[in-house]
């Protein structure tokens, strides 16, 4: 039973937090790792599903990595995560009570501790400030996607990525498909000319409805939003940034990470219209113009009861390539090819690469790429919300900031939620 839960977690991105955490930790390995001067200490900031999974993966990346500090705004999230981590790899979880930090400034306390590496897995609104502070404090970083919710946030992230390079710090993003062996093999073939010059790409991220946590009597408005952050664009960036950004990242990969010139399209909120679902849309349809007639088409939705898709079709002048992200990877060209190899866990691969790069003294850094891929989602959202066609230059220079400044957060914050955007009425700024 215990083994199958572990196996599942290793294969998936997020930790599966058991509904009952009544497992007996005394049955787990009853010893602790012996620290030495080479031990890499990890701090986890944002102890939800993904953060817990990432922290466990860090401890499996190599033998001399331990977790020593944790931070969350909610004690219940931190406690759940800690218990899960103990079950996963007890010997490597060395977080004493003095290093469990709760609150909006908990991240600072992790950064003030003697950790070497931090895992940033809060909702993305906090990422630019957390990343900036982490690099300032001289920490290596694993940083989940999306990395910001607005253009000023992206610019801060790009500056932090540059600073990380200057300081010799590693910065690994959670654009996990970039570490998935079938996709690495397929995109290598495409970039090596396997389908000729790519000129048209269609990508999807069409899913059903997601979780919602019912408001409890003691929750303030801010706590209700923080507990349901997906539905508030100032916290999540909307679902195109929070989720569908993975498909946009695949599109970017196929185009050699060139930036589009301009974007147009639409989106809206048709089925998830109740007030509790905040101000996010439930579908987006966008056309990314890469110049010289090269286009990328994106379609994403989160609507219950509709067909699902998570795939990408790429057309070139010598053939086509198709990826259904979980099922198949194939090229149809002068030579037909289908991926048929040994699968590995891309989430584990990320951490293996990150820690190996730190050990080698050749720090991995995909910071600019992660910022640009996130910006593909942000420009898409701006276009859909306003109905305007926007150039990349306009969008990346936007001054619009979603949400309060990080030092303004508190549970009684009187934050006026922006209304649901209306194309033609909502203006780009
Ligand atoms: N790469 C992937 O496949 C993948 C998968 C899942 C999630 N993610 C990303 O990981 C991030 C986290 O997602 P999740 O599913 O783990 O969400 P989650 O809600 O399970 O976890 C987020 C955690 O952050 C905490 N938090 C919120 N604000 C905080 C703050 N200011 N300081 C400290 N802690 C704070 C929350 O209380 C919660 O415990 C998101 O950006 C999401 O898009 C990526």
Brief summary:
The chain is an alpha/beta fold. The protein has 14 helices and 15 strands.
- In N-to-C order, the SSE pattern is HEHEHEHEHEHEHEHHHHEEEEEEEHHEH
CATH topology of the largest domain: Dihydrodipicolinate Reductase, domain 2
Report Rg.
21 Å
**Fraction in beta strands:** 15-25%
State the helical fraction.
Answer: 25-40%
The CATH superfamily of the largest domain is: Dihydrodipicolinate Reductase, domain 2
Derived from helix and strand composition plus strand pairing, the structural class reads: alpha/beta
Ligand names: nicotinamide-adenine-dinucleotide
Q: How many strands in all?
A: 15
Tell me, briefly, the overall form: globular
Q: Indicate the CATH architecture of the largest domain.
A: 2-Layer Sandwich
Quaternary state of the chains: single chain
Biggest sheet: strands, sense, closure? 9 strands, mixed
Number of helices: 14
Question: What is the topology?
Answer:
Blueprint (H helix, E strand, L loop, with lengths): L1 H10 L28 E6 L3 H13 L3 E8 L2 H15 L10 E3 L3 H7 L4 E4 L6 H10 L3 E4 L7 H17 L3 E3 L7 H11 L6 E10 L13 H7 L5 H4 L2 H4 L2 H10 L7 E7 L14 E7 L5 E8 L8 E6 L2 E6 L3 E6 L3 E2 L7 H15 L6 H20 L3 E2 H5 L33
Parallel strand pairs: 1-2, 1-4, 2-3, 4-5, 5-6, 7-10
Antiparallel strand pairs: 7-11, 8-9, 8-15, 9-10, 11-12, 12-13, 13-14
This protein binds nicotinamide-adenine-dinucleotide.
Nicotinamide-adenine-dinucleotide binds next to helix 2, strand 2 and helix 4.
């Amino acid at each position: 039973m215990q083994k199958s839960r572990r196996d599942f977690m290793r294969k998936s991105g997020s930790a599966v937090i058991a509904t009952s955490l009544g497992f007996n930790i005394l049955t787990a390995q009853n010893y602790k790792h012996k620290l030495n001067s080479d031990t890499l200490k990890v701090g986890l900031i944002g102890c939800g599903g993904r953060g817990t999974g990432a922290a466990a993966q860090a401890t499996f990346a190599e033998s001399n990595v331990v977790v020593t500090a944790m931070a969350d705004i909610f004690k219940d999230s931190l406690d759940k995560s800690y218990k899960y981590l103990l079950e996963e790899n007890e010997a490597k979880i060395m977080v004493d009570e003095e290093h469990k930090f709760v609150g909006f400034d908990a991240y600072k306390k992790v950064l003030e501790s003697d950790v070497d590496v931090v895992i940033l897995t809060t909702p993305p609104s906090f990422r630019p400030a957390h990343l900036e502070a982490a690099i300032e404090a001289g920490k290596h970083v694993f940083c989940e996607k999306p990395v910001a919710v607005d253009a000023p946030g992206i610019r801060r992230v790009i500056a932090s990525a540059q600073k990380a390079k200057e300081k010799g710090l590693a910065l690994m993003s959670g654009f996990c498909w970039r570490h998935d062996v079938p996709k690495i093999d397929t995109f290598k073939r495409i970039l090596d000319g396997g389908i000729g010059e790519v000129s048209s790409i269609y990508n999807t991220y069409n899913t059903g409805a997601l979780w919602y946590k019912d408001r409890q009597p003691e929750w303030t408005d801010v706590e209700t939003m923080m507990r349901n952050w997906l539905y508030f664009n100032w916290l999540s960036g909307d679902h195109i940034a929070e989720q569908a950004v993975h498909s946009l990242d695949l599109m970017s990969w196929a185009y050699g990470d060139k930036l589009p010139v301009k974007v147009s399209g639409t989106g809206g909120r048709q089925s998830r219209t109740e007030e509790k679902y905040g101000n996010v849309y439930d579908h987006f349809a966008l056309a990314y113009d890469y110049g010289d007639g090269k286009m990328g088409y994106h379609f994403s939705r989160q609507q219950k009861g509709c067909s699902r898709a998570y795939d990408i079709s790429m057309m070139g002048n010598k053939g086509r390539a198709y990826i259904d992200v979980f099922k198949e990877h194939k090229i149809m060209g002068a030579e037909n090819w289908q991926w048929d190899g040994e699968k590995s866990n891309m989430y584990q691969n990320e951490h293996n690469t990150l820690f190996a790069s730190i050990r080698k003294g050749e720090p991995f850094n995909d910071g600019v790429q992660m910022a640009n891929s996130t910006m593909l989602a942000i420009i898409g959202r701006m276009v859909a919300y306003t109905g305007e066609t926007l150039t990349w230059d306009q969008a990346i220079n936007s001054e619009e900031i979603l949400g309060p400044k990080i030092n303004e957060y508190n549970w009684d914050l009187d934050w006026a939620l922006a209304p649901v955007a209306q194309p033609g009425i909502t203006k780009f700024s």
